[in-house]
Amino acid sequence: MRPNVEPMAAKTILNRVRVPAMPFDWSINPYRGCQHGCSFCYARSTHTFLGQPADDTFQRHIYWKAGAPDILRRQLARLARQGRLPDHVAIGTATDPYQPLEAKAMLTRGCIEALADYGVPFSVTTRSPLVLRDLDILRRARVLSVNISLHTLDAQVWRRFEPASPAPRRRLETIGRLADAGVPVTVFAAPMLPYLTDSRETAAELAEACKSRGADRAMIDFLRLQAPEVKQWFFGVLQQHYPKLAPVYGNLYYRRAGLPESYVRPARERVEAEFRRLGLIGPGAAKRKPADNRTGRDAAGAVTEGGLAAGGRAGQAMEAGLPANGSGPGADGFASGPFGDPAAGSGCVPLQLTLF
Prior knowledge:
Blueprint: E1 4-8, E2 15-16, E3 26-28, E4 31-32, H1 57-60, E5 61-65, H2 68-81, E6 89-91, H3 102-105, H4 107-117, E7 122-126, H5 135-138, E8 143-149, H6 155-161, H7 168-180, E9 185-192, H8 200-213, E10 217-222, H9 228-241, H10 246-252, H11 261-277, H12 313-320, E11 328-329, E12 335-336
Parallel strand pairs: 1-5, 3-6, 6-7, 7-8, 8-9, 9-10
Antiparallel strand pairs: 2-3, 4-5, 11-12
C-alpha cells in the first residue's frame, strides 16, 4: 500500500532545543510520520498534533517539509552572520530522515549538504541503508556520528515489531560501509524488549556483530511507552504475536512509562556487560581514527556526540527525543513525567517534544 504523501509548509527547519540536559542544541526532522511504522516508536503520538490518528496512519500519511534545504540555508546564513552557527545538529530525533520517501524527495541529502557547506557538526539517526547514498557528503562533512538503530538480529522479532524497516542484516552492512568510509558509527541498541531481546546471549550476538562491522560505540536503552497512543498500539502488536507476554508486560508497565528498577537494573547490567566486553561502551569506546580530519572528533579522537554515554540519560534521551532528566517543559511546551516513576501515574502524559 502506497503512503499518502503531503507537503507541509515550514517556516524553519533548524529547530532550537531549549533543554539544557539534551546532548544537542538544534534538531532537524524533514518528515512527519514514518513509513517504517515501528510498533514501539514514541513519535507515533505526534500525528495527533496534526489532526491525524496515531494508528497505522502514522506510516501511511507522511508529511514532507517543502523546500527544507533552502529554508535551512537561509537560517544558516543568518546564524553565520550573527556568529552563532550550531555546535551540534541532531537529524532524525523524531522520524527516520532516510525513510523510503527520502529516496525521491532528497530533503535529508539537501539538509546535510547545507550543514557540510557551512561546516556545522551534525549527527544522523536512521535504520536505513539509504544513508549510504550520501557518503560523498558524509566524507567531507563534520559528522559527529551516524547512529544506526539496531536492537535485535532476530528476524522474527524484527518482522513482528518493525516489519516495514530495513532488515537487521542490511543495517549491519550499512555499519560496515560507513566504518570503511571513515564515518563515525554509533549503534543505538534500542529499545531493548523485555524477555525478547535482553538476554545475555542475544546481547552478545548483537554486540559481536556490530563490533565486527566496525561500529565505534553503542548506546543501550530499554522500551518506554511514554504516550497512551503508543502504549495502546504496542500492546496490540504484542498481543497478536506474543499473547503469553501481554500480561507480563501489563504488569511491568502498569501505571508507568518505563520498566521498574527491579527489572531494568539487572537487565541493563547483563546487556551492557556484553557491549563493554567488546569496547563498545565505556572508556575504550570510539577510539578508531577517521579516514580524514573532517569528521566530528574531538582532540582526543573520541566521538563528540554531545556527551552520548551508553546507558546514560543523555544518550537515552537522544534516542527517545526526551530530556535527559526525564521531566520539565520542552521546546514545544509539552511536559513529561519522570521515566519509570510509579508516582507519575500511567506515564500517559503529553509527550515531551524537542523535535520539529
